[in-house]
Amino acid sequence: VADRSPSPPSPRVTSPARLCADVVAHWARETLDDGVYGDYQSMGLSNGQYEILRRIVAAARPVRQRQGDRAADELI
């Protein structure tokens, strides 16, 4: 019986939509924690992504106040 090493995992490709959602969610959590918005370009966001970020944070703030961090994180 030959000793074979398992083949390495195939690289996963992240869709542009998933990548966008992940980046915006990251900055939404950071902004919610810090309470401070940075410049959208320094965050690596487009103007459209920044608008989405602002809306998400605005929606998450009252949820966080009423229901806590976990609920706000689920919303994000």
General shape: elongated
Question: What's the average pLDDT?
Answer: 90
- Helical fraction: 55-70%
Distance between the termini: 51 Å
Strand and helix order? HHH
Q: How many helical elements? A: 3
**Low-confidence region ranges:** none
From the alpha carbons, calculate the radius of gyration and give it in angstroms.
18 Å
- Strand count, sense and closure of the main sheet? none
Share in β-strands = under 5%
Query: How many individual β-strands?
Result: 0
Based on secondary structure, the structural category is mainly alpha
Could you name the key traits of this structure?
about 0% strand; about 80 residues; mainly alpha; 3 helices
Structure description:
The longest helix is centred in the C-terminal third of the chain and has 21 residues, at 47-67. The protein is built from 3 helices and no strands. Helices cover 62% and strands 0% of the residues. Helix 1 packs across helix 2 (47-67) and helix 2 (47-67) runs antiparallel to helix 3 (69-75). The protein has a domain at 24-75.
Helices and strands in order:
Layout: H1 16-34, H2 47-67, H3 69-75
